[in-house]
User: What shape does this take?
Amino acid sequence: MPSFAVHVHQLTQPHISNGEHQPPLLTRLRNATTPGSDGGKSGGDGGKPVPVNLSAVDLFCKIETKARNEWRLLRGFVYVGTLENLLWDLISPPFVELPEDWDTYLYGEASAWIDEIQGLLHPTKPRRRLHRPCPACGVKYHGKDREPALTVNCWDEQEVMLHPSFWDASCAACGAEWHGQDVQWLARALVAA
Assistant: This one.
């Protein structure tokens, strides 16, 4: 079973990912907050560029707050030190080994942090939302935010539009999926509706 320690290593230590040496993810996230990494988005007054990537700062603060709260709940006192040291101390002596339920819980939390950091560092184009009812279940909008139920992925990893035979579509309401030639059938069904 995977352990929290594996994710702590990826977050706090240099590691190999996809055959390449990578700096720690928290270091990469911290570096993403530096000037110029936000693409020159303008400030609130519509004037000068914001000197930091606010999304990266927000994500770092969210992770740090959550980690410090979990430390306090697990260990019973406030941790004074860096986020990296806190995570490392969670898995290192002199502290007792993490109980299995905590290890599983923190593994899930760290998995989400890693996904969020990767998403911020390597954003992908979102699926196209289709404002049409699903031909399988008839639902047009789904969930508490009333998002379109039908979405289609039409982009490759380089954010270039794929040939329609490589598209995939899905319905968040009923779970129906269409791939390749089935997407062409879906397009015809949506036009006919």
Remarks:
- The chain has a mean pLDDT of 84.
- The first strand starts at residue 15 and ends at 17.
- DSSP finds six helices and eight strands in the chain.
- Residues 62 and 113 are 9 Å apart (CA to CA).
